[in-house]
Amino acid sequence: MSTIESPKLSISEALAEKIRQHSAETYPHECCGALLGRDASTSGDRIAPREVLHCLRLVNRRDDSPKNRFSIAPLDVIEADRAAQVQGMDLIGWYHSHPDHPAAPSEYDRNHAWPWFSYIIVNVQEGIPKEMTSWRLNDDRKEYSQEAIEIHSEATARS
Hints:
- The protein is α/β, with parallel strands linked by helices.
- The chain is 21% helix and 40% strand.
- The protein has one domain (8-152): Cytidine Deaminase, domain 2 (3-Layer(aba) Sandwich).
- It has 3 helices and 9 strands, in the order E-H-E-E-E-E-H-E-H-E-E-E.
- The strands form 2 sheets. The protein has a 7-stranded mixed β-barrel.
- The two termini are 27 Å apart.
């Protein structure tokens, strides 16, 4: 009998810190960016988590309410995917901040998200990054599942 494991996302402390720093720099506005890396893989009984290997800062294209919304332009998505391919990686998700709000997806986030991708959200309180969470939108698009984040000291090499 096999068990289904909850989704996991692996990221180095250095990359997690880059996301936190980006969120602090843009406060009180939301920041956003792309997560490049590898999807989860299975080897025998071992399941390796989805792994973030690079973060790509993007410009929040939202002009009308950047304090509580972010927008990524279609060309940004294409550029992020190209950057991933050039580095032999995949575009595996997105990150953004929630200034002075919890690190949980909003209804707006759900309405603009795509299933499969990982969505890291950083709570920033008075300019200081606090909680970092990750989520995946379920295929039915009705709700998210929280994704455990494994923060480690160095990027893990997988063959």
